[in-house]
Write a structure and sequence with these properties.
This protein is about 80% helix and about 0% strand. It has about 240 residues and is mainly alpha-helical.
Length: about 240
């Protein structure tokens, strides 16, 4: 079985020297699944209530814009809070290094002692890390506070979420725009659920088909609930004259 990357000295040097990149896979999957689920849930709910295609399209597109923006804004706020917290902790560590360097050195010593370093090897590791203040503070950020060394852009996270939401959420509406109905919408949306699940298996140990079926089951369960609610309440909606 081929390995994911080479292990010769030059390849290792190039790989380690590169800056780690922020991952936005979670944002895409989160936005894509939610976009498809919520839009198809609206489609299924309105279809269950036996309302018109016009109502389905109006509510569907309203959901695409409003809920997509809401998710993007929430992801922006959450990601920015994580980034601000990392900046706060890093500034705190710099302040502690300046005010209590001996105590901070002891923290480094105990951290690496817990990793199995001892004796002269331990002291050399402590001296090497604490010889550079930024490296020292970054080490404390990861080892003491367990925060990620790579911060993600709030704007990128928000845009990726919104894009995935709109792209995947548009799929359940396309059949109705083309004159189709719930059966076609269900089929194409199921394909999207399965595709998203299969794609995310690239970053997991689960087989692609299992990941695809898992995401498909989640999406169809949400849609089934929405259809059932719409069907049960169709009489109430009908009484309003919609």
């Amino acid at each position: 079985m081929p390995l994911e990357h080479a292990h010769d000295p030059a390849s290792i040097r190039a790989r380690i020297a590169g800056r780690p990149e922020a991952m936005y896979l979670r944002d895409w999957i989160y936005g894509g699944i939610d976009g498809a689920v919520t839009t198809f849930a609206i489609v299924a709910g309105v279809a269950g209530a036996e309302l018109s295609v016009g109502v389905i399209l109006i509510l569907g597109f309203a959901n695409l814009i409003a809920d997509g923006f809401s998710m993007a804004a929430a992801n922006y706020s959450g990601t920015k809070a994580e980034k601000d917290d990392a900046a706060r902790v890093l500034a705190m560590e710099h302040r502690h290094i300046a005010a209590a360097p001996d105590g901070e050195r002891e923290e480094i010593r105990q951290i690496f002692a817990a990793k199995g370093f001892e004796g002269r090897a331990l002291e050399r590791a402590v001296d090497t890390i604490t010889s550079d203040e930024e490296r020292w503070a970054q080490t404390m950020l990861v080892e003491e506070h367990h925060l990620a060394p790579v911060t993600r852009s709030p704007w990128t996270a928000a845009w990726v979420t919104f894009s995935a939401f709109v792209i995947c959420g548009l799929v359940p509406l396309i059949p109705y725009m083309a004159g189709g109905g719930l059966a076609v919408s269900t089929a194409v949306t199921a394909a999207v659920f399965f595709a998203i699940g299969s794609a995310k298996a690239r970053w997991s140990l689960a087989p692609w088909w299992r990941s695809g079926l898992e995401t498909l089951a989640i999406g169809l369960a949400a849609a089934g609930l929405a259809y059932a609610v719409g069907h049960l309440l169709r009489g109430l909606v009908g009484d309003t004259g919609l």
